[in-house]
Amino acid sequence: MIPAPVPADDARRVRALHALGVLDTAPEERFDRVTRLARRMFQVPIALVSLVDAERQWFKSRQGVDAQELPRDVSFCGHAILQDVVMEVPDLADDQRFHDNPLVAGAPHVRFYAGAPLTDAQGHRLGTLCILDHQPRRLSTEDRALLGDLADMVREELLATQAATTDHLTQLSNRRGFEALGEHVLAVCRRLNMPARLLYLDLDGFKQINDQLGHAEGDAALVRFADALRGTFRAADVCARLGGDEFAVLMSHADDRAVKAGLGRLEETIRRGNAQTPPAVALRYSTGWARWSPQDGGDMHALLRDADRAMYRHKRQRGREDVRAH
């Protein structure tokens, strides 16, 4: 058996999957109707909506199997998400990647696999709509197109879910997506005994930009700040727009020194950007952060509350300093 290689951008892909808030949720008719249709149209015993997590594949919808999830290293879908088109294996027992796979050599003794990748709006391949058979077979060109059409139906449902967890303007996670993804991140940190930090950031003077220059300039300022967060924090860090002019960053495997380094990079990025924009739309912001450790047992709501309070203490302190300076 040859496990699928892990894509270079897998951390971003997994983060996008977690942000949907779909993993470990109950079955839904909107997905089940597609797998029932696939099973009937292709006359196969098994059809799945399979989402490939960091270490497992989890089935949002399953027809013909009892298992809710399987290890990623034995999954066929781990291979399928490496390409943009339908992956077909006519005979798994005759393929060096899969001939001794436990799903081929043992129950459920599958011999055929075809999977169409499921992508989000950013192009991350999150999983597949796949069909499996106990007998070798081949798809026709029309069959492959049909499987792709059914996968598009699943993709539309996933995009509807993504729209509910993504801020339309900045394309960062919104509060709902951030809280759902954050709980997954904290669960990983707890399992690996790693610390985490949550940063809360608030744009200063944002109301004046809106009032004096209009909402278009206000929106542009929000997008610039979101781009600065996205560009300066680590790929594994989770950035979000919580609402209005409030943003947050969850840093996994991070201590105070990592926070200060990240904020230093952000300050430099904002400084360079402000040098190229009129003073009236220059970005200014206040920050605060909260500490989390595996021993604390705190959740995202507590972290957000503590970081928010720290941010407002910083904002009030800066306000007093500005008054003294004048």
From TrEMBL:
Entries under SMART domains matching the protein: GAF (SM00065), GGDEF (SM00267)
Span of domain GGDEF: 194-326
InterPro entries: GAF, GAF-like_dom_sf, GGDEF_dom, Nucleotide_cyclase, Rev_trsase/Diguanyl_cyclase
Signal peptide segment: none
Pfam families: GAF, GGDEF
Organism superkingdom: Bacteria
NCBIfam families: GGDEF
Protein name: Diguanylate cyclase
Organism: Pseudacidovorax intermedius
Organism ancestry: Bacteria, Pseudomonadati, Pseudomonadota, Betaproteobacteria, Burkholderiales
